[in-house]
Amino acid sequence: MAEAGITEIFLKEAEEIITNLESLILTLEDKNNDESVIDSILRCFHTLKGSPGFAGFTDLYEFTCKLESLFDKVRSGEIAVTGNIIDLSLRSLDWTRCKISGDPVEQNSENFKLELDSIISGIPGNDKSNFPEDDMGFLSTSAASGGIDESPMFYKIIIKFRDDIFYKGIDPLMIIEDLGSLGEFVCNNVNIKELPDFYEIETDKCYLVWEIILKTVHDEKRVRDVFLFVYEENDIVIENITEKYSAIRDRQYFSEKKLGELLVDRGIVKSNELDELIKNQAEHNVKIGDIIVQKGLASENDIAAALQEQEIIKKKIYINTVRVDSEKLDNLMNLLGEIVIDQASLHRVADLIQQDHGLIVKNALHKLDRATREFQEQIMSIRMIPIGSTFDQFRRFVRDTAQRLGKDIKLVIEGSETELDKTVIEKIGDPLKLIIKNAIDHGIESTEERSVNGKNPVGTVTLKAYHQEGNVFIDVIDDGRGVDLEKVRRKAVMLGIIQEDEDVSRERLLAFLLKPGFSTAESSGVLSGRGAGMDVVTKNIGELRGSIEIKSMDGEGTLLRIKLPLTLAIIDGMLIRIGASIFIIPLLSVIETIQINEHAYKTVEGQGELIFVRDVYISLIRLNRLFGIKADKTDPREALFVVVECDGVRMGIMIDELIGQQQVVIKSIDSFITDSRAISGATILGDGKVSLIIDIHGLAEEIKMNPGVIDEA
Amino acid sequence: MKPEGIINIKNINNFYTELKNEISINNEIIIDFSNVNRIDTSAAQVIIAAGEKVKELKKVLKITGISHDLKTILKLAGIKNKSE
Fold first, then answer.
1. Smallest Cβ distance to A192: which of B16, B42, B48?
2. Which of A200, A257, A324, A497 is 20 to 30 A distant from A240 in Cα terms?
């Protein structure tokens, strides 16, 4: 048995394979009988059972063999893919996952396993006796030898028969059949390039060329023997590609492969053909797969299989590229944060040094700044992970929850490749799950209700991730009934948040759903479930320095938009002073800093104070009033303005002094210090003082929610 | 059309002629293989070429009544899903 640490790594890999399998099985449910998906499932099961991490887990090994056997029969068409098979497979994976993690999630897991065992065994031809002796023999060793395969070999065979082969009394297909009896054709591409037009065909000539990859336990001599009587007179090339093909099969890629390269690796397309195809693609601007099918170089199934392979490789790369203890990454980031703070101190010291010497120190510091910035970018890139795997986990959740509620709901995923900081990814799962649960549970109507209302009986939940303005946005959209604002209003009146006759905007009503205390179990039914646990979601996302907003259309659906920072650690900030306080404005939000002339300031009824900047009036924001502090300058005509932009809307923040720009390390602050959404955190300045960081998005929300807060007292 | 027995180099011309005829007069050509035991390479390439032709003519070629053994032969000849 391998030492504990190594076993742990293998078990971790097994968990990844199971996650991949779950995703593939759900894909199979959508794309019934898709051969490439079934092949991928089989490959996963094969890898899983061969994992050295499984050594010693006799029951797991047996169980996985049964599942592999089940899907083998699905591939051969003996068993149809039904909802029952999908359910069974998913439940089996649950059990396997629990066994691997040692998680006692399922009570009576042994009974559960026995139940599954009997269902699987109930499928004809899927009983234990089907397992060869060799298969079970694997259990006595810890090596990942590939089990029953007895080290299979892979041969690439190109067969071009003479065009008069029929006159020799030979049928090429019989030879191909003989070849097939030696093992399995991993790839069989029949090249029809030389086949003339149907009306010009000479039926006594052979035009077909076979390009085959054979997986067999037999040696090369045995393979050659198949061609014993035709080898000399025909164009037959046999190449042992075991090493190369195993590398492809195990996907030991260090970089992503393009579709064309994969097809070359699989022996479907030749290298020189690929060059021509790429040229062709550039000229006609069409997909390379389409050209290959059009030219008859490969079937659509071959292309689909290669694309599937490409997708798996991508996932594998994304998931497996880094395998470092995450704590080490966190420590590295914290240390970098300390360096940035110390650098700010050094800059301050450099300001105090006499001119010439001061310049030398500043130059040296400038170089250090650049190196630190690059260092930061590298660490950040290591910490960035695509959100796809997190999204994929919800496919199962949506399926199970919808099934439990008797609803028909489809999950659409967009932007899986969007990258987020590792910590954000780890913490975003639970809030997202709650939001999706609410959407399924209460947002999306029953199938009957949807049909009555003329909607598609199948509801849709869309998960969409994208980058914008230095932030990451995650949208959860459902096409359900939307939020009943009247009920929200009644609840708000009942809780005393608003007066009965108070005029409250739609946005503000929706924002109530995110308030603590608004979300009781009782209110979940009343508010179409939108309140259930939403304050917890807000709190969790707030801890990630993110924000959440709700948009809803009656009868059309609801959008929950989560905005998250790209990084949790360090940002470029603009230091400003208002009275005795120094604040940081994230540089990404800053458009410009200006001073206005005396005619550029106006007060407009209902809109408060405005300043005229570049031909438009924008809102004037007095942070001193929002935070209850004293500013040096009260007359806008004497003050400076930092023009910031949020969601396409500009605002002018009035300040006393612009101090400069610097990288700042973000430290979170407890809610007892401030619960203002306009503050996203704090930082330590070079002189050791603490400065608050302004959240421009939160500031805009705060003003929208409480417009009176910045009006002149 | 419903050929019978074994289609091979000995009788391929009959099959080819009949198929040409079907393609010229019908928009949907159905080859019922339920009485066919086996085909050889010469037949397979005629079917492949016919498949390409009907695609070009925007017609449909369907193969029905395929036995398990025949399905294997068609697959080895690369016919799977191509002519349907």
1. B48
2. A257
Among the candidates A280, A315, A350, a domain finishes at: A315
Q: What is the CATH number for A540?
A: 3.30.565.10
Q: Tell me, yes or no, whether A94 and A172 share the same domain.
A: no
Of the candidates A267, A270, A274, the one whose C-alpha atom is nearest the C-alpha of residue A240 is A267
Low-confidence ranges of chain A (pLDDT < 70): 1-11, 32-33, 47, 49-59, 62, 102-150, 244-257, 265-267, 282, 285, 309, 311-323, 469-470, 516-517, 519-533, 567-569, 647, 670-675, 706-713
Are residues A626 and A678 in contact, defined by beta-carbon separation less than 8 angstroms?
A: yes
> Considering the domain boundaries, does residue A321 fall inside one?
no
Q: Do B73 and A173 touch (CB under 8 A)?
A: yes
CB A620 within 8 A of CB A611: yes
Q: Are strands B60-64 and B28-32 parallel, antiparallel or unpaired?
A: parallel
Of B41, B49, B50, the CB nearest to A171: B41
What token pair was written down for B69?
Answer: 């053994």
Final residue of a structural domain among A542, A565, A588: A565
**d(Cα A334, Cα A118) in Å, to the nearest integer?**
53
pTM, whole model, 2 decimals? 0.49
Rounded CA-CA distance A522/A515 in Å is 15
Question: Does the CB of A196 have a partner CB in chain B at under 8 Å?
Answer: yes
pLDDT tens, residue by residue, A579-618? 999 999 988 889 999 998 888 888 887 778 899 988 889 9
8 Å CB contact of A208 and B75: no
Which residues fall within 8 angstroms of residue A505, CB to CB, at 6 or more apart? A704
B7 to chain A, closest Cα gap in Å? 12
A284-323 residues touching B, CB cutoff 8 A: 296, 299-301
Q: Does B53 touch chain A (CB under 8 A)?
A: yes
ipTM tops the 0.90 cut: yes
CB contact under 8 A, B78 and A299: yes
Mutate to test the interface with B, among A186, A198, A293, A297 (most CBs of B within 10 A): A198
Give the tens place of pLDDT for each residue, A610-654. Answer: 999 888 899 899 988 888 889 998 888 889 999 998 767 889 999
